Amino acid sequence: FGITSDETFVITTTNRKEITEDNFSELVQDGVTLYLLQSVDQMLLLATKERIDFLPHYDTLVKSGMYEYYASEGQNPLPFALAELIDNSLSATSRNTGIRSIQIKLLFDDSQGKPAVAVIDNGSGMTSKQLNNWAVYRLSKFTRQGDFESDHSGYVRPLPVPRSLNSDISYFGVGGKQAVFFVGQSARMISKPAASQDVHELVLSKEDF
């Protein structure tokens, strides 16, 4: 790597967790992406790509976002699909000390290549590991254990408040993936963890599946 004997360096995960003798076996697994940096908080010089492998739930391939919404007992399913997307933002902003900002934009031009629904918030943001787990179908935000670092890590249901302010508004409880694929054919998640300078981006598409 061209490191001289008098240079110091660190090896970290893409979540900027330094690899040490104590955590090596826990953090270094087959296929994991690692950074070789001068310091843990060094700015990346270029955009990097991380390989993400997961086995999609068969419903992702067979039903995508359709089944739960078409089985909605005669109700208009679109509001429930949008509620799932907003639900993620409500959870992400639940611990904000200042203003909670959630924007919903309907884009009918070609700025994103085709019409799109954009949900933007100023919440806690997601690490690359949390984005990876967001992609896994039917991985509940309240039941993820072990190696799963939830996109709702640390989420605590708030004291009784109107449902519009907490993160339990989703009607079907089937998650953002199904909502995305009910509304459209691809999802682009862009997130910056509050405590990190890194911006992570994940793209899922019907074509990929």
UniProtKB/TrEMBL annotation:
GO terms for biological process: double-strand break repair. PANTHER family: STRUCTURAL MAINTENANCE OF CHROMOSOMES FLEXIBLE HINGE DOMAIN-CONTAINING PROTEIN 1. SUPFAM superfamilies: ATPase domain of HSP90 chaperone/DNA topoisomerase II/histidine kinase. It comes from Oriolus oriolus (Eurasian golden oriole). The gene is Smchd1. This is SMHD1 protein. InterPro entries: HATPase_C_sf (IPR036890), SMCHD1 (IPR038892). Pfam families: HATPase_c_3.
